[in-house]
Design a protein that fits this description.
The protein has nine helices and 17 strands. The protein is of the alpha+beta class and 379 residues long.
Amino acid sequence: MTQRDYYEILGLARSATVDDIKRAYRRQALENHPDRNPDNHAAEERFKAATEAYQVLSDPDKRARYDQFGHAGVRGTGGPADFDLSEALRMFMRDFGAFGGFDFFGGGGRRGDDRRGSDLQVHLTLDLDEIAHGARKQIKLKKLVACDVCGGSGAQKGSRLETCATCGGRGEVRQVSRSFFGQFINVSICPQCEGTGEIMRDPCARCGGEGREPGEATVAVEPPPGIAAGQYMQLRGLGEAGRRGGAPGDVIVAIEEKEHAIFQRRGNDLLMDLPITYTMAVLGGAVEIPTLEGPVALDVPRGIQSGKILRLKGRGLPALREKRKGDLLARVQVWIPEKPSAEEEKLLAKLKKIESQPPAPGGKRGAGWFERVRDAWGV
């Protein structure tokens, strides 16, 4: 069967940059991650395919061989052969999983424990100022907490626990089978004691032996600077309490962004529209513009056109886990007054008699255009 093109899998052109590759892979990986699509084989295959493509295209040497020779160029170099789910998960967590002491996903390490508490997912909306400088938030949760009476054990206070006869107190059972290839041992959680190694004869009257009850809790979360919508933070052990002393679940915090009145986010860059007057566009000058750190002066060059973007280095958002910052992009919009004053109309009528006509498509302005405008306005 012919393998799909790696650029096609990530929805990229062959001229894609490294940042383009990272963004495309991260988007697909988050969308198809097994933790978000349990028991979805199709999503799992898409996740593996995207990770396989990312593994090759994010490496300059492998990408060069792939561009020249196709899939044959990356066989035997740590490329796509026998790419399994565990390897894909490790690669995703290595490059995108952890930041600021938190992880995007749990990695599935404890799914076999039936007593483990459930994970809770919450949505946290941040504004641009919080994204730029970091934040500390308090989130109130309604969840199952450890029973106050039995302390989470599920047993009546003062009662005795008996050693499980099925597993002998080990909490696991082993099954031995033989075949032509030799002896195989399968180890699993004991179904009788659910892995505790003990049997409870007198359950707690308050929680009925569950070891937990409905309650509330407040958890603190500190999104780091540069975090973006679509990213996740995992607060380990702060989810619902486990049954009968089982491990607690986690809290998965999904990040959302509040729309800003002035700025639009473009990765780590910020884009804003900058209205300027006609005279400012012609003659240039300094104008004050807002930033997330306060107003700054921006020099507008003479003869600037609507749609032109002026860049202020380092005035954007910080990059996650890095010291560098994005830029502030000011998109110029020449503002035309709908109702000019009488004096403005008089001056504009004078200007109209001497101004040059707009150039034809692809043409250039005639010599002396700036000089005629400057003389008309007496500057």
